[in-house]
User: Fold these one by one.
Assistant:
Number 1:
Amino acid sequence: MLIFRHMDGGKIASPEQMQVWMQQTMDWLASIGAQGKYDGRGNGLVFDNARVVHHNKTVTNGPFGEIKETLGGYVIVKAESADEAAEFAKGSPILQGEGNTIEVRQLAREDGVH
Amino acid sequence: MQQKIIPHLFRTEYRKIVSVLCRRFGLDQVEIAEDLASDTFVTAAQTWAMKGLPPNPTAWLYNVAKNKARNHLQRNSVFDSKVSPAIQTNTLELYETEIDLSPQNINDSQLQMMFAICHPSISNEAQIGLSLRILCGFGIEEIADAFLSNKETINKRLFRAKEKLREQKVNIEIPGDAEIDERLAPVLTTIYLLFNEGYYSESQNNTLRKDLCLEAMRLCTMLVENRQTNKPQVNALLALICFHASRFEARINQNGEYVLYDEQDTSLWDPELISKGAYFLYRAASGNQLSKYHLEATIAYWRTQKADTRQKWEAVLQLYDQLLQIEYSPIAALNRVFVLSKIAGKAQAIADAEELKLTDNHFYFTLLGELYVGIDDGEAKLNLQKALGLAKTNTDKQTIQKKIDILTNLPLSS
């Protein structure tokens, strides 16, 4: 395992310490979120053309657990061909915004053998 | 003994030697740096087999690498002085300078190489491939395995990437403070994808997958430990990695099968990594820039809290909403719908999901299938069958088939 030089003392922080860290983090997030334009009601997606996927930016399907880990399987964009990947990208609502592009890159070659 | 120690040293020392030599020679000579470093290990294997292991194998390797580099520069300088007197001074200067394999220079060289390799001029997959080779000391075969590809394809990809870096005359340096954020972005993407490859790879090689994750963690740690690159978004990425990596042991069972989140044995979750994650996330919470790593790391934090509370799901929903604004991705949108179902109920989530119309994505149908269970089991099955038709890997197909089987054995709800 890697050595984290920034950790002081024990390897595992106490639950109280964790609580303090997370509270400060949440407070900070809230203050930043308040500054930005964003619809917090959670009804529908809000697209701000200036801030969504920019040209030439790679879309990565990050390790956000819910679907991948709860419903199972793998969701890195895996397509048989570049064309298929492009089709996948076309299906994204973001392309409805004028001038927006999504670039989906093929990371792993899928052979379906595994 | 040598059989074991050489691969180990290769993994830890090859990358250091390559980075230092490459920094000295320039990125246009990266192949020579790689050859000299590989050659050093060949010499070690031969010599140690005959004479036994030296008292300090690492120091031995460094000495041999230095000598090989010096010989190379000397040969070049003789060649150059005859063929091209114009560049003689330059080469002589190189030759006269000692190859510096001090810990400080090794560290600096590796960081600088990170920026050179993650140059925006080459594709992400090339950046990851080169990073694995040059920054992580992976063999071509291991890289091919990680990418579910073959050696030939990987070799070609890496060759082209190096050509491109040469054409672009990319310098080996840490960018100045003015452009550091911009140049850090592709470096962080590469680390993120490297972690992703390990965490969600289809590769059956569990050790390799874990190595990919640990390498991502190591590279990110190097950035956090350097004054210039110790930025909030870097700390956030490290937090994200720590939180997710905490479940590594619980995600795969003894038969190498994937264990779904709800069925994971939480006693296998690593509390040390969870607390490190919280620490780095706390450090990331400064300044006035909100990166997607901040949001994803905070989502990942909630993931380490198994309790099914409304407070948790509301916090996560808000994070997904923000994430979708910063960087839309179909998977993030699907995840958001899943979280929405926890708060607003399945009917609302179905309505939101169907608006996404990701009809070529099997996860879209898997999610819909899951949401329809209990509301309309017939519809649930229909969606899962569509998902099955679109799924490309056996792992995915098996998971979906299992869900269909369960539904088939249940009495229909409508």
Number 2:
Amino acid sequence: MTDPSLIRNFCIVAHIDHGKSTLADRVLELTHAVSAREMREQFLDRMDLERERGITIKAAAVRIQHESAGNTYVLNLIDTPGHVDFTYEVSRSLAACEGAVLLVDAAQGIEAQTLANYHLIQEAGLTVIPVVNKVDLPAADPDTASKELAELVGQSPEDVIRVSAKTGLGVEDLLMAIIERIQPPAGDAHDPLRALIFDSAYDAYRGVITYLRVFDGTLRTRSKIRFMATRTEVECEEAGILAPGPTPVDALGPGEVGYLVTGMKDVRQAKVGDTITVAGKPGAREPLAGYREPKPMVWSGLYPAEGGDYPALRESLERLRLSDAALVFEPESSMALGFGFRCGFLGLLHMDIVKERLEREFDLELIATAPNVEFRIVKGDVVTTVHNPSEMPQPGTFDTVEEPYVLATVVTPSEYLGPVLDLCQARRGSMVDMKYLSPERAEVHYLLPLAEIIFDFFDQLKSRTRGYASLDYEHWGYEPSNLVRVDILLHGEPVDAFSAVVHKEKAYQYGKQMVERLRELIPRQLYDVAIQATIGSRIISRETVKAKRKDVLAKCYGGDITRKRKLLEKQKEGKARMRRVGRVDVPQEAFIAALRVDQRSGSGSSSR
Amino acid sequence: MTAGLYVHVPFCLTRCGYCDFNAYAGLGHLSNRYVRALAREAEMHAAEWADVRFVSVFFGGGTPTTLDPRELVDLVDRFRGAFGFDEPAEITVEANPDTVDVESLTALRRGGVNRLSMGAQSFDPAVLAALERVHQPSSVRRAFAASRAAGFDDVNVDLIFGANGESLDSWRRTLEETLALQPEHVSAYALTIEPATPLGRAVDAGRTPPPDPDAQADMFELACDLLGAAGYGHYEVSNWALPGRECRHNLGYWERRPYLGLGAGAHSWRDGRRWWNVRPPEQYLAALESATKPTGGDEVLDDDTLRLESVFLGLRTAAGVSATDVDAGRAAPFLEEGLLDERDGRLVLTERGLFLANDVVLALTD
């Protein structure tokens, strides 16, 4: 166990691409926490996906030793996920620290995520060390960036540390500041154990690996422990520190950060934010504050492209859930897509990650319906939630519908303020406030329906500001909305996968766009096929796929018969792969293309 | 048992951009050897086909009329020596308008050839150019007159519709010009883009638009109307004939009677087995000149495939298929939609149905 007065627990938070992972790499190098041989870029990002996307998805921690004034300090760097989907996970990582390095790119200045992160740091009551990165870049303006940052965190520009994570310039100063400015952890080794889980991962060989920070008491190897929220009692098979690989220790004392192996097989038993104590009488009575259940915000139906893969998809989701406690799913069936699962995700990135892992790690080909939010249907005192637009009841059968809203923060160069405000207004936003960070840059806060955010809002924001604006948001709660369900009918049969819940004023636009799109995608059949968009029994848009008139092999003689028969057999296979909606054959590609268009096109009307 | 004899002549003066048949320009120097090889191949099959009576010979290509008429006549004589024939047998030669005159056609007619199939394709110079055909509409009229002068009373005119730039009016003129010649038989094919052809590559690369299926359907309807009104019976998807002038040889394919194919790439069919010769003329020659059969491959059809082929080939013709060969439930929607007709216990595609034959066949078979 380490003397708590020599421990400093900190994290680095930054807007995407401001250099967090590179700074972490330099810190590890400078303190020899990782040997030159083991060193690689983005050391803390363990998943392939993290490296490819340049973002941190999972939290991680590493223990560093640093000499100062004759003392050997233990610095625990707790890496945090860098995306709004994982705000809760970030908050638990922050809760495990006493201080935070708030990193800003000297050329970019403060961005939306910087503001959102600072907000979280403040809420967590952490000491802030403001740092400006990339000071060596030609485009860098460290003075302005330092001034902006100092103003944000209420410190003087001299307190801002200037570094180049790339070259290592200033990193030594930063390590000194961490030791000097951040409080050592409090806590008594003899109190009942209370340790905070800030992440858990699943290892195929060792089972669940829990990452934790001890607040009070001592976690001992071979002791019996209890996960307070899930009420799971297990033996602590191995406790250890991350230096940087897992290194077993006998005990972890107050302020220490490390890992725990219990032999558990399901990460849902070791939930982020839960408190670990010792089992039985000596256990703590009150858990650490701040735990909550993961709450899916975005839903999508996942269907195997090949109907026969349904059992494989179920098994894959079950296995994925062992390492992803936030993933929820329930079986559902679609007339158009067959059997699949309605899955709940923390957000769009989480959804993308799950889809990509299913396709990559489990080798599945998937069709995903357009993502939608959860709706609350209020009738008298009864509130029901709907995760699938096709389950939304018809108008007149309920009092109100509510949809989730977010408080969005956009930071933009002032010259693009107009287009940003236009976009937010067009997406049913209401402005909360607006202020200038500097004459050149403004910060706006809007209340927006989450449904509008998940429908290509970010792409639109980027394209309207030539990529300069940044976005972050936090969940706000549910508000009543004037929403209707738009159904798409093929030859009179509703295609459930295309049903959408949209704002009344945008229903016509959505219906028209889907109907026109489908007219392009649905192959001609032997009879005219009507494509209709409806609200209840009212048709709001209609197109017709005209009957096909030619499908014949013109020439067929002796030498050709084998070849022509094979063409016919091929055509037959293609037909067998089509999905049947009523009497209409729809190729799978048409479903995929229509669902994709629905997510990407700029109408901004879908909230599915 | 009756059968047809197909003879493939793979030589052409030029290659047309749409054609994916086993045909080659510039191999004319092989023709003497090729004719000898055909005769030898016939002898090789003589014993196996001794129990069969041939009712037709069809010289196809390629361009059979690139061969000397005496060579073609000599081959007919040799086939008569090698195989048993039901006389009078139908003996057809495909003719390219630019390769025939009264003299050559008279030689053929005197040598026993009694049917000509004239590759006219169109009477619109722009359409002929789009098809990369080198002849002019006037050559067709001249060659047709020559065939009559030579004594042919059974002549087919081959047409293609739907090439880039062809309008419905242009197609109407082509049909009217054809009817003015009063042929006994007309074949009219919707232009099909084959991937492995210069035209296929041009379409693939976007240099040429693909045929518009609706425009082709309009043209098909017009052909049905005009040819029908002129007294031609529509007896197969792409074939019309005056009564009694249906091509016996081609009917054999759709009725699935046996046929023996001679020549490079020619296919044969008998007793549920289909086999075919090697395609390159040089390989074909090499095999026969070393006294081996030039077989390139074969397939034995299983029951499902036999059923598929019989429905798919039968429905192409005016005879259709027996209603008992098809699941009535599957046929019902097509009868209702007017794509199928039921006549005397047989299911027959209507004219609209013929142009959608693939869909109907796929729905009627497993």
